[in-house]
Specification:
Helix content is about 40%, strand content about 30%. The chain is an alpha+beta fold. It has a 7-stranded antiparallel sheet with strand order 1-7-6-5-4-3-2. Helix 1 crosses helix 6 (about 185-245).
Length: about 250
C-alpha cells in the first residue's frame, strides 16, 4: 500500500538565505528531538556548478503509540525501546539557477513504515530575471521569497512476508483434490493494517512539517537580525537549553 502527501508554501526570505538556513536549522526550539547531524559526503561539481550533500541525522524518536498498538507484541524487538532513529538526507543546490532539492528517508522500522520526503526550493521566476539583470538596490529588495513544495510517500510493507508465504503455500496446495479456501481474511486484514499505519504516518508527518517550517523561520529571523554570528550563537543557546552544557551526550 502507498499513500502520498503534498503541500506548497513560501518563505518570505531570499533563496540564498533559505538554503543557508536549511543547513543550519539544527538545533532550534522546534527540533528538540534532533540529537546530532553528521555530514557523510559533500562535493561541488564544477561542471554543473551544483553542491551535493549527504547527511545523517540522529533523532530522539519512537513509533507512534497508535502504530505500536496495532503491531504484534515483540515484533520490533529491542529497537522500539531505544528511542532513537537515523534519518538519511540528500540534497542538491544550484545557486546559479536558483533551486535546491532535498530527500530524506527513515533508516529504522522500514519493515513497518517507510517515509520518503522530498522538497523543492525555488527562487520565483521574476526574482530570477531580476537577479540576472542585477537592477540596482530596488531589484535586490524584491529578491525576497522562496517557493517550497513538499511531497511525502508512505509505504507500509508490514505483513508482506507472511502474505507471500501464504500465497506460496496456497499455490503448492492447489494441486490437491480439495485445495483449502483461505487467505482472503488474512489478506484483507493485512491491507487494512497497512492503510492504517500509513494514515498515522501521514498525520504525524504533516504535524512535523509545520514544526519544521517554524524552526526554519527562527533560523531565518536570526540570520536577518544578526547574520551568521547570530545564527551560531542561537544554536549554542538552543543546545544548552535542550541538553545543558555537556550537550546531548552525558559525561561518565
Amino acid at each position: 500500500m502507498v499513500k502520498f502527501y503534498e503541500s506548497s508554501f513560501n518563505y518570505e526570505y531570499p533563496f540564498p538565505a533559505v538554503t543557508l538556513a536549511y543547513f543550519l536549522r539544527y538545533p532550534n526550539p522546534y527540533a528538540k528531538h534532533v540529537l546530532s547531524t553528521d555530514v557523510i559526503d559533500r562535493h561541488f561539481d564544477t561542471n554543473s556548478q551544483r553542491l551535493y550533500t549527504t547527511r545523517l541525522h540522529l533523532k530522539r524518536s519512537k513509533l507512534p503509540p497508535a502504530v505500536l498498538k496495532l503491531l504484534p507484541k515483540g515484533i520490533l524487538g529491542s529497537s522500539s525501546d531505544t528511542g532513537q532513529s537515523y534519518i538519511l538526507e540528500k540534497s542538491v543546490v544550484d545557486v546559479r539557477e536558483g533551486w535546491m532539492t532535498t530527500e530524506t528517508k527513515n533508516l529504522e522500522w522500514t519493515g513497518v513504515l517507510s517515509v520518503i520526503e522530498k522538497q523543492s526550493y525555488r527562487r520565483p521566476f521574476q526574482d530570477k530575471e531580476l537577479g540576472r539583470l542585477g537592477g540596482g538596490s530596488s531589484g535586490i529588495a524584491n529578491l525576497g521569497t522562496t517557493e517550497v513544495t513538499t511531497s511525502a510517500t508512505f509505504v507500509s510493507c508490514f505483513g508482506q512476508g507472511g502474505l507471500r508465504a501464504a500465497r506460496r503455500k496456497t499455490e503448492t496446495d492447489s494441486t490437491d483434490e480439495n485445495p483449502p479456501r483461505k487467505g482472503f481474511l488474512s489478506s484483507w486484514s493485512t491491507s487494512s493494517l497497512q492503510r492504517t499505519i500509513e494514515a498515522i504516518g501521514m498525520r504525524r508527518t504533516r504535524e512535523a512539517l509545520l514544526k519544521s517550517k517554524d524552526g526554519m523561520n527562527v533560523v531565518l529571523g536570526r540570520l536577518r537580525s544578526g547574520g551568521l554570528v547570530e545564527v551560531l550563537e542561537g544554536m549554542r543557546r538552543d543546545r544548552e537549553a535542550m541538553y545543558g552544557s555537556d550537550g546531548p551526550w552525558k559525561r561518565t
